[in-house]
């Protein structure tokens, strides 16, 4: 019978620090609607499953932990938070772009419940974010994030400090990619709403007696919803494809 030693418990705890921090920020899993016990048990299960893969690094980890255990714990937690935040950035960017679209097509004063939290959100944001999050699980991208976590130990082994410059570059590149794709897929709706509002603004200047706002509102809302209905599938397909590429670029192989 194999006995569990204190060194192995320490190793599992350090693995849990990185995985648990990442799970806390992952889309869907890390949302406020998921019970904390479920997230905790999931992180524990993943940590226990992955710990045997890093027994070769046990001596180096114990040396670093003995020198400064608090620094090792903070480093592992920071690495997990970085990976989770890089994935969540795409959904934050999509939510931001969807909120802008909702304001442009007349849904700025209409609120609904957020998908992941309990705050008020735009209905357009819910319409776009919920399918994108569903595709995140349907396409097994959450499993690819777990593989990414496993492979992250090759570039940043247990007990080693995170390269701040490289992490900052990765964060900026991911931020640029996330907001670029979010604005690109929402661009048709933004262009439509801008064009039709400019046209009705010109009409209001030419014929001030016509209540342009009451005439334009139904056109803006109906046209925006019709355009969203026609484009939602290619929008979400493009978003999922870019998210897949970004996960691979972060270090996923295979």
> Helix and strand succession?
HHHHEEHHHH
Helix percent band: over 70%
Strand order of the largest sheet: 1-2
Number of strands: 2
Instruction: Assign the structural class, choosing from mainly alpha, mainly beta, alpha/beta, alpha+beta, or little secondary structure.
Output: mainly alpha
Q: What percentage of the residues does DSSP assign to strands (E)?
A: under 5%
Give the count of structural domains. Answer: 1
Basic shape: elongated
Q: Rg from C-alpha positions?
A: 23 Å
Summarize the structure.
With 254 residues, the protein is an all-alpha fold. Helices cover 76% and strands 2% of the residues.
Structure keywords:
mainly alpha; 254 residues; single chain
How would you characterize the overall build of this protein?
The chain is built from eight helices and two strands, in the order ααααββαααα. With 254 residues, the chain is mostly helical. It has one domain. It has a two-stranded antiparallel sheet. The mean pLDDT is 79.
């Amino acid at each position: 019978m194999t006995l569990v030693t204190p060194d192995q418990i320490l190793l599992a705890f350090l693995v849990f620090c990185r995985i648990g921090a990442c799970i806390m920020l992952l889309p869907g899993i890390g949302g406020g609607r998921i019970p904390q016990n479920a997230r905790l048990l999931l992180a524990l299960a993943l940590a226990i499953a992955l710990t045997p893969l890093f027994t070769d690094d046990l001596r180096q980890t114990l040396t670093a932990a003995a020198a400064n255990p608090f620094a090792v714990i903070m480093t592992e937690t920071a690495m997990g938070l970085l990976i989770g935040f890089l994935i969540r950035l795409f959904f934050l960017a999509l939510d931001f772009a969807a909120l802008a679209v909702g304001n442009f097509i007349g849904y700025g004063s209409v609120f609904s419940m957020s998908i992941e939290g309990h705050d008020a959100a735009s209905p357009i944001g819910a319409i776009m974010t919920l399918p994108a999050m569903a595709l995140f699980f349907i396409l097994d991208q959450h499993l690819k994030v777990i593989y990414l976590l496993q492979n992250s130990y090759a570039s940043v082994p247990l007990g080693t400090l995170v390269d701040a410059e490289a992490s900052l570059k990765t964060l900026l590149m991911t931020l640029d990619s996330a907001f670029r794709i979010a604005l690109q897929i929402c661009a048709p709706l933004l262009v439509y709403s801008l064009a039709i509002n400019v046209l009705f603004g010109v009409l209001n200047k030419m014929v001030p007696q016509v209540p342009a706002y009451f005439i334009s509102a139904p056109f803006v809302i109906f046209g925006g919803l019709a355009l969203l209905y026609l484009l939602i599938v290619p929008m979400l397909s493009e978003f999922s494809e870019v998210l897949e590429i970004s996960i691979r670029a972060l270090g996923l192989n295979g």
